[in-house]
Amino acid sequence: MGYQFLGPSYAAQLRDAGFAICPLPYDATASYGVGARNGPARIIEASQQLELFDEELETEPYEAGIHTMPPVEMPIEPHKAKELCQNKARELFDQEKIPIFIGGDHSISIGIIEAASNIFDRLTVLQLDAHTDMRDEYQGTRLSHACVARRAMERCRVVQAAVRSSSKEEWDLLKKMNALPITAALIKRGLKGATDSILARIETENLYITIDVDCLDPSVMPATGTPEPGGLDWYELTYIIREATKRHRIVGFDVVELAPIPGLHYPEFTCARLIYKVIGYIIHATGSMAR
């Protein structure tokens, strides 16, 4: 069926597309369950089973133009991988596309966020994640999936939500920085109030969203390297993202940490639906469907 999100019949040329999907099959820093390098291919394959009509928005988001790039051949060494991700991101930002990066483990976001922070003034990153990812170094590298937020905070403001796992050292550091996450527990006690709290912390127009699929509960998303109980459900996650798109300019986003389980198709289908849903929210917020 071809390596195209939604399938070849709905693929746009890059010059005509509003959105560009960049698959980054990399999991060299995975520390528990592996297999996230297989995530992009499975998500793109699953996307070809999606209905094109979004009943919530009453639109067909593909009409804004979605281009799928070939999967990037990723080096194993973390510094080289980061530089490659950074270069791919810069290339798409320079072409004024809204890039969508499919991982791969969460370390792919480090280079992407670095590129975005160099291009967009006053950038905030919204991190939807079960983990704080605030270690300065993990397993011998400062570019681990467990260091993503720490590296991002060296570049721009980061707002974390859906967290439910952290080391004491990471938590103490976030408390010292007055940057404690909006936890999954707080979201589940009151979705609207928690979402308002999340968005109140985003003080910039420009927003990059990084979505680690372990922000979802394992009953919704079992296929991830480090699942944590007590996560978000589909409607909680999509509500937060929709409200963010209403109030901020989304410059790009990523979906990371899907580690496919052979014979179990709904996790990759969920990821594909999530990507299409976020595209729809961005289009709906900007009021533009024209290529």
What attributes characterize this protein structure?
291 residues, 36% helix, 15% strand, alpha/beta, single chain, Arginase, Chain A, 9 helices, 8-stranded parallel β-sheet
Major sheet strand order: 2-1-3-8-7-4-5-6
Residue ranges: pLDDT <50 for 5 or more in a row?
A: none
Total number of helices:
9
Helical content band: 25-40%
What's the pLDDT, averaged over the residues? 95
Radius of gyration: 17 Å
Number of strands: 8
Give me the CATH superfamily. Ureohydrolase domain
Shape: globular
Number of domains: 1
Topology:
Blueprint: E1 19-24, H1 39-47, E2 66-68, H2 78-94, E3 98-103, H3 108-119, E4 123-128, H4 148-153, E5 157-163, H5 168-176, E6 182-183, H6 184-189, H7 191-200, E7 206-212, H8 234-247, E8 249-256, H9 266-286
Parallel strand pairs: 1-2, 1-3, 3-8, 4-5, 4-7, 5-6, 7-8
Short note summarizing the structure:
The chain has 291 residues and is α/β, with parallel strands linked by helices.
Detailed description of the structure:
The protein is an alpha/beta fold and 291 residues long. It has one domain (19-286): Arginase, Chain A (3-Layer(aba) Sandwich), CATH 3.40.800.10. The chain contains 9 helices and 8 strands. It has helices spanning 39-47, 78-94, 108-119, 148-153, 168-176, 184-189, 191-200, 234-247, 266-286; strands at 19-24, 66-68, 98-103, 123-128, 157-163, 182-183, 206-212, 249-256. An 8-stranded parallel beta sheet has the order 2-1-3-8-7-4-5-6, sandwiched between helices. Strand 1 (19-24), helix 1 (39-47) and strand 2 form a beta-alpha-beta unit. It is globular and about 50 Å long. 53% of the residues are buried. The mean pLDDT is 95.
